[in-house]
Amino acid sequence: MKALSVYAEKCCGCRICELVCAYQHFQRNNPKKAAIRVFALFPNPASNVPVVCHHCGVPKCVELCPEGALYKAEDGRILLTAKKCTGCLECIEACPFTAVYFHSDMITPIICDLCDGDPACVKWCPTKALRFTPLSAIKQERRARLAATMGGTS
Amino acid sequence: MTQFKGGYVGKIARINLTKSKVETEKVKPAFAVKYLGGRGWCARLMWDEIPAHTDPLGPKNKLIIATGPLSGLLVPGAGKTSFAAISPATGYYGDSNTGAMFSPELKQAGFDALILEGKASKPIYLWIEDGKIELRNADFYWGMGCLEVEDSLKKDLGDELIRVASIGQAGENLVKFACITCDYGRQAGRTGMGAVMGSKKVKAIAVRGSLDIPVADPEAMQKIFEKSMRQIVQHPVLDIWRRQGTMQFIDWTQENVCLPTRNFLSATYEKYRGINGDIMEKTAKVADRSCFACPIACGNFCIVNKGPHKGIGVEGPEYETASMIGSNCALPKLGDVIYANYLCDNLGMDTISAGNVVAFAIECYEKGIITKEDLNGIELKFGNTQAVFDFLEMIAKREAVGDLFAEGVKKAAEKLGKGSEKFAIQVKGLEISGYDVRAAQAMGLAYATADIGAHHNRAWAIGYDIEVGRENYDKKKVKKVIDLQHSRPLFDMLGTCRFQWLETGIELDVYARFYEAATGIKTTTENLLRASERVYNLARAISVREGLTSKEDWLPERSFTDPVPEGHVKGATLDKRKFKRMVKTYYKLRGWDEKGVPTQKKLDELGLKDVSKKLHAP
Ligand code: SF4
Ligand code: SF4
C-alpha cells in the first residue's frame, strides 16, 4: 500500500499542488477547489506547510460521519459516496489535520482521493515536499538523515 | 471584435475614495487585448483618466492596480501585480510590480484591476471578497509598519490566508520612495507607489477570493504547463536559483567590477564575501519563498543570527538590497543587511532607493555638506551600521534632515547644492539600482532611457556589455536595449515572472501559447512584443505630457567624471560625447524625434492615433 507524506521543510509555498489538484478533479483554475492547502506562515514560525489528508489507518472522519458517506477502501484510500453526503461538515471537525475542504460551489467535501493512484500534487511538486511511497518506506529520507547523524565514525 | 473566453476575469473596480463609492465596470475586449494587462492596462488608463500636470500626491492622481491575463493561472510564476500612477519620485509615468499571491487572490475575488481615485478623508482599508468591496475604517492600523498591519489584519479578519497589500509609516509620511508590501515581504518597490497610496489614506488592501478564474482551454493550459515544468525542474540553474535566488549575483558583479560600493564611487567591495549568497545560505537562510505557481522559488527567508537583532526575520535580502544597502552603504555583515532590509520592509521603503539615498547622505556628511546636528547627533559614515539603521528610521518618519532625504537624492541635492548634484545617483528622480555603468554602456543607456527612471528591470543589459565589450558604444548595444525594453516588460503586462524565460529557457513563444489557451484569442510572439512596444511608447507619451524632455535621458555626473578606482576596468568612465550619440541613435531606432518624443508616424503605426493627435496637437 502506498501513502502520501509531506516534507514540509522542503516546501517552497508555490501552491502548484493546490492548482493541479483543482485541474485534475474539476478542470477549474481555482486553487480553492483543491484537497490540499498550503500555509505559508511568516515570519514566526517561518515555514511553508501543505495540509493534506493522511488517509489514516483508523480514520476519524469515517468514524464520525453520521451518514456513512465516507469509507476506507481496500487500497487504503478514504473515499466519499457523494449521494449519501449531506454536507453537514462533521468530517472537517473530526479530522485531526483539518484536511477536509469545502467550497461554496458544491455541497460535498473535497477530500483527497490520491488521484486513483497517481497524485497530481506529488507529480508536479517541484521540491519533492510531497511523496507517494509504499508504507514500508514512508519517510525513509528523514529516517536516513537522522540515522546519519547517529553514525559512529566520520 | 474578438471576445475573450478566459484569462481575464472581465471586471475592473473603480473605487472613489472621496465619495466612498465603488463601481464595477466590464472590461472591453478591445482594450484588454490591445494593452494585454498589468502595466499595459495601467498606462492606457493613466493616459485616458489622469489629467496633464497632475500633482502625484494630489487627489487627481490615480493608483491603478492591475493583474495580467496569466496572473493566477497554471503558468509557472503567475503571481505578478502592477501598481501604477504618476510617480511622486519623478513626476512622470510610474509603475512597479510585485510577485507573491496578491494577483491570484484578486482575480479569484472577481477583479482584474482596481482603480483608486480621489482621496479618503480618514484612514481606510479595503476589504475585497468575491465580488464585493468595502471601505473600512483603518484608524487602528494607521501608524503601523507593513509587516505589523498585515499580521494584525490577518488576526482581526481571522484568516491567515487572506492576502494583503499595505503601506508602512513611510507611505503614510509620503516618502517619495515608499513601497507597497505584499505577503510579508514582496514589494512593489519602485517609483513611490506607497506614497501615492498614503496620499489617498489607504493603509491596506485585504483580499480573499474563491471564484474560478475562467480559462478558455484548460486542457491545453495543462499541457503547456506540464511541458514547461519538466523543462524548468531539469534545468541546471534551478538548484542555485532555489538556494540563493538573486543573491548569487553579488559574486558576479564583484568579479565583473560593477558592484556599486560607497555611493557608486567603487565598483567592487572588499567585504563582498560578508554579504553574498554563500554566506546567506550558510548562516541566515531558513526557508524558501515562492510566488504563485513558481517552481524556482527565488525568495529567501533569512534570520539575523547574532547580536541585538537576533531572531528578526525577513523575506530577503535579494541582490538589489544586498548591493544597495550592503556594499553601497559599506555594511560589513549580512546580518546588518538583513536587519536594514527588515526596517525598510516594515517602514515601507524601497530598499533600492533607500540604500542609494543613505549612501548619498553619507557622502554628504563625509564631505561636510550636512552636519552631525542635522542628523540628530548620529555619526553617519560608511560602514557605521547603527547610524544607517537610525537614519532609515529618520527618513521614514521625516525626522531632522531625514525629512529632506525622504524626497529622494535628486530633490535633496537640489536643496543642498555644494556640488552634491554630481554624486546624486539618479535618473529623472529615481535612484539608480545595483549596477555600476562606467564600463557598461548598454546598461547606462538602459538606465538613462527606462520609462520610470533609473531601473534595471526594464533592460538588464549589463550581461550584454560584458559579453560584447566594456568600451563599446555601438548601435548593436542600442538595439539590444530597445529589444530588452520590450521583451522584459511584456511579463509585467502578462502578469507573470520573467525568470522562467530568462533563467530556465522557457521560450517567449510559450507565453503566446499560454495566452491563447487562457483567453481563446489567437496571438503570436510578434503580437505580444508589439503590444509591449505600444505600451513603452504610451508610457513615454504620458511622461512627455507631464513635461519630460530629452535632457533627462541622461546619467549622473559621476558616471562621466569619476573613474572606476580598481579592478580590470580601472580608470573607466563613460564618454559624454559618445554616450550622447548613443542616446540619439536610440531615439532614431525607436522612431522618436530628436527631442525624444514619439513621432506621429510611430504612434500611428502602433495603433495610438488618438494619442499622437493629442501629443502633437499644435
Ligand atoms: S507544490 Fe510542493 S513545494 Fe509547492 S506548495 Fe505544494 S508542497 Fe509546497
Ligand atoms: S522566480 Fe522568484 S520572483 Fe519569479 S515567480 Fe519565482 S519566486 Fe517569484
Written description of the protein model:
The complex is a heterodimer of chains A (154) and B (618). Chain A is of the alpha+beta class and 154 residues long. Chain A has one domain: Alpha-Beta Plaits (2-Layer Sandwich). Chain A has helices spanning 16-26, 60-64, 90-94, 120-124, 140-150; strands at residues 2-6, 36-41, 47-52, 70-72, 78-80, 130-134. Chain A has a two-stranded antiparallel ribbon. In chain A, strand 2 and strand 3 (47-52) form a beta hairpin. Chain A is globular, with a radius of gyration of 17 Å. Chain A starts with a strand and ends with a helix. Chain B is α+β, with helices and mostly antiparallel strands and 618 residues long. Chain B folds into three domains: 11-208, Aldehyde ferredoxin oxidoreductase, N-terminal domain (Aldehyde Ferredoxin Oxidoreductase,  A, domain 1); 238-424, Aldehyde Ferredoxin Oxidoreductase Protein, subunit A, domain 2 (Orthogonal Bundle); 441-615, Aldehyde Ferredoxin Oxidoreductase Protein, subunit A, domain 3 (Orthogonal Bundle). Chain B is built from 26 helices and 17 strands. Chain B has a six-stranded mixed sheet, with helices on both faces. A six-stranded mixed sheet of chain B has the order 8-7-12-9-10-11, sandwiched between helices. In chain B, strand 10 and strand 11 (186-188) form a beta hairpin. In chain B, helix 2 (38-49) packs parallel to helix 22, helix 7 (218-234) runs antiparallel to helix 21 (508-519) and helix 11 (319-326) runs parallel beside helix 13. The two termini of chain B are 33 Å apart. At the A-B interface, helix 1 and strand 2 of A face helix 7, strand 13 and strand 15 of B. The structure holds iron/sulfur cluster (2 copies). The site of one iron/sulfur cluster has 15 residues of chain A, from helix 1 and strand 3.
